[in-house]
Amino acid sequence: MQVPSPSTREAASMYGTVVAIFLVILVATLQSSAPPENPFPYQVPLDPEGSLELSWNVSDAQKTVHFQLLVQELKAGVLFGMSDRGELENADLVVLWTDGDRTYFGDAWSDQRGQIHLDSRQDYQLLRARRTPEGLSLIFKRPFDTCDPKDYLIEDGTVHLVYGVLEEPFRTLEAINTSGLQTGLQRVQLLKPSIPIPALPVDTHTMEIRTPDILIPGQLTTYWCHITELPDGFSRHHIVMYEPIVTKGNEALVHHMEVFQCAAQFETFPQFSGPCDSKMKPGRLNYCRHVLAAWALGAKAFYYPEEAGLAFGGHGSSRFLRLEVHYHNPLKIQGRRDSSGIRLHYTATLRRFDAGIMELGLVYSPVMAIPPRETAFVLTGYCTDKCTQLALPPLGIHIFASQLHTHLTGRKVVTVLVRDGREMEIVNRDDHYSPHFQEIRMLKKMVSVHPGDVLVTSCTYNTEDRELATVGGFGILEEMCVNYVHYYPQTQLELCKSTVDPGFLREYFHLVNRFNGEEVCTCPQASVPEQFATVPWNSFNRDVLRALYGFAPISMHCNKSSAVRFQGEWNRQPLPEIISKLEEPTSHCPASQDQSPSSHTVVNIGGGKG
């Protein structure tokens, strides 16, 4: 059944660029035929109830993302899109809405007040609208880069997806304001790397690390910790793949999961299953920090390269594992039980190389601090040429995956490989990083690190809502800047991080006193956080601290897994010299854009493009 195009007046009011669909809710005429295989391999629930589900596929060749939005119970419409940090203001949107007679689909954007406007360029292309047994299915596509200043540039890293539900008809699109809608956000990595899946060994076995049918607390956020142990006599194996197990019906509540191995220095760990912040949690569980597996919403199975596996079990390895599950329950749903977890695939036939995990970035130290009310303050940590020359094998290592990590004020993270003073390539970068969405990500291509190379990790922070300086440390209100890189072959080097030389920071506090009337206590009994807390944060003190971090010598932590540093002098080391930086990607967009709208398209809802 085809629908007549809108009237001239309606088309003009919509800039003539809207796809008109008359959605006949009498589903008898809307038969669906499932494709022979799933063309949308990635999917996430958008809302907490799971009534909006997004699936997608990525074409690197066409630089296009194909989306399928499944709406279980369509009311008067739905909006979907992307924004910098998940705001509904200044968002790039696609909207399905009805005026009570007809239903329309259009590319739109919201201004800083949340008012929606139809985009003068229609870069979201509707391919199909179909009623299925599961609900209304909308299939559409959009290029990574539309060259439209109103559109979001889809990049590698985290993408903040936004959605809204329209409860009633609107006569025009411009009558919609996001402030009056039921809205939300979901974070994903849209541009998944296209990597061939390695074959699993014939002797692969599986082990499920799951929560024991727990009752999910009816609160916004819960981190659940569960201790389990490997069987007696479990010998050394290689993990070659792992995948999520999410209890059916809880897909919108299970946000991310991690499996940690406990420290081998303790023979036993107490059994515990409960909230990670519980006063009943044994303190020894804090020694279960070695990551074996990590999964977040939207991620698929994680495969190790064919030539490497992650060792666990056997002599010198703890039998105890800690599963941590993050439940995100904004509707505070009560009475939901859960047995989610991670399935490890492992083999007794050890591969050629052990995979390792190395920490890059900044030492967890209060000497690295961010002043309050900063929008984009950058701190940088180094893995120096001296450390890699000493600790890496002659043929180097190969990084194949990475997990970026900060606490609450982190906004961007990037690690760059430097060789002979020249930036060579980016190891991992996330310009829309969120501390609420951390996963181990496969790299599009392996990065080889040679002895003598430098790895530079920079984190950008936003402290606009804070009145005091934010110092480095383990607390959630303190900060971190870390990249956990997954590589092979495993070496003794487990931590390659830096911090500013403490002596130069003391000179900073003395300088602040000289210009601010002895406001900072520099007495020996005052801790670094206490000293930072008394700094008057005028522009001079901010600029001097920023400059200090940019030129002062560093203290290097070039550490083995035993937490002992490699032999050598590591204090007051000069900053690595970088004589050549990578060029920022250049835009391939033409200098001027033709803003004239294209003609509208009439779509047959029953199947395919009309």
TrEMBL record:
One GO MF term attached to the UniProt entry: dopamine beta-monooxygenase activity
Gene giving rise to this polypeptide: DBH
Annotated protein name in UniProt: Dopamine beta-hydroxylase
Keyword Transmembrane helix: yes
Subunit structure: Homotetramer; composed of two disulfide-linked dimers.
DOMON domain location: 50-166
Pathway(s) it belongs to: Catecholamine biosynthesis; (R)-noradrenaline biosynthesis; (R)-noradrenaline from dopamine: step 1/1
Catalytic reaction annotation: dopamine + 2 L-ascorbate + O2 = (R)-noradrenaline + 2 monodehydro-L-ascorbate radical + H2O
Membrane-crossing segments per the record: 12-30
Ranges for region Disordered: 586-610
Domain of life of the organism encoding this protein: Eukaryota
Protein's job: Catalyzes the hydroxylation of dopamine to noradrenaline (also known as norepinephrine), and is thus vital for regulation of these neurotransmitters.
Cellular component terms (Gene Ontology): chromaffin granule lumen; chromaffin granule membrane; extracellular space
Bilayer topology term: Single-pass type II membrane protein
